[in-house]
């Protein structure tokens, strides 16, 4: 339980720093993308804050996990809005067959996760990950047709794909190794997710400057 607390404290710290840096960037540039990134980090940190405080005060995993989940779901919604904001009209209308790899990969995982947990929660989370991945793959392929600084948007799409992959990996590993000690793969997958979350900050900066 102590390692789970340390792990969540680290995630809380990372998302708080991400929110702080995004807020500073927004204040300097007044770019909407930074405000949306601030909302993403802020909502994620609120979810992590509840989970961390519960672990700290009661020394056990929260029984009512939906409190944190509301914050985490909101954060992903803001990430999707950010994704749509950074995409040009041509990118949104760009047809890409490879983008269908997202549902081809995500739907079987959704069916698998539903055998372990709450069906509604899995539908919401997997649905959002499929949507994010679909748009990220399409955007990544689209940026290959661009030249100059416009190609820098690809870093954001790669960041989103890393975030989605880290989420899928954490959920999948968690089904087999629910333990959160350093000896468990779940612990390191959560660390990977934390890195992916923080990586969205420089990735977004690259996209904004494109």
Question: How would you describe this protein?
Answer:
With 210 residues, the protein is mainly alpha-helical. The chain is built from eight helices and no strands. Helix 1 packs antiparallel against helix 2, helix 2 packs antiparallel against helix 8 and helix 6 packs antiparallel against helix 7.
Short description:
The chain is 80% helix and 0% strand.
Q: Please state roughly what percent of the residues sit in beta strands, choosing from under 5%, 5-15%, 15-25%, 25-35%, 35-45% or over 45%.
A: under 5%
Uncertain segments: none
Q: What structural class should be given to the helix and strand makeup?
A: mainly alpha
Helix content: over 70%
Number of strands: 0
Report, as a whole number of angstroms, the end-to-end distance.
44 Å
Number of helices: 8
Whole-number average pLDDT? 92
Task: State the order of secondary-structure elements, H for helix, E for strand.
Answer: HHHHHHHH
Q: Rounded to an integer, what's the Rg over CA atoms?
A: 17 Å
Outline type: globular
Describe the largest sheet: none
Protein topology:
Elements: H1 2-29, H2 32-58, H3 66-86, H4 89-92, H5 101-114, H6 119-143, H7 153-176, H8 185-209
Q: Top keywords for this entry?
A:
mainly alpha; globular
């Amino acid at each position: 339980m102590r390692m789970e607390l340390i792990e969540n404290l680290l995630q809380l710290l990372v998302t708080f720093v991400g929110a702080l840096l995004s807020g500073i960037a927004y204040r300097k540039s007044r770019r909407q993308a930074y405000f949306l990134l601030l909302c993403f980090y802020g909502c994620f940190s609120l979810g992590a804050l509840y989970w961390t405080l519960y672990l700290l005060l009661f020394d056990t995993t929260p029984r009512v996990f939906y409190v944190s989940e509301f914050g985490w779901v909101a954060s992903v919604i803001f990430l999707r809005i950010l994704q749509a904001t950074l995409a040009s009209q041509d990118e949104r209308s760009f047809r890409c067959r490879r983008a269908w790899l997202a549902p081809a990969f995500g739907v079987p995982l959704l069916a698998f996760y539903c055998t372990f947990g709450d069906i509604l929660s899995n539908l919401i989370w997997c649905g959002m990950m499929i949507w994010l991945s679909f748009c990220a793959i399409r955007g990544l392929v689209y940026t290959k047709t661009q030249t100059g600084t416009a190609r820098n948007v690809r870093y954001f799409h790669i960041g989103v794909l890393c975030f989605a992959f880290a989420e899928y990996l954490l959920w999948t590993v968690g089904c087999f190794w629910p333990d959160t000690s350093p000896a468990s793969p779940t612990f390191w997958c959560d660390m990977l997710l934390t890195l992916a979350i923080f990586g969205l900050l420089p990735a977004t900066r690259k996209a904004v400057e494109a």
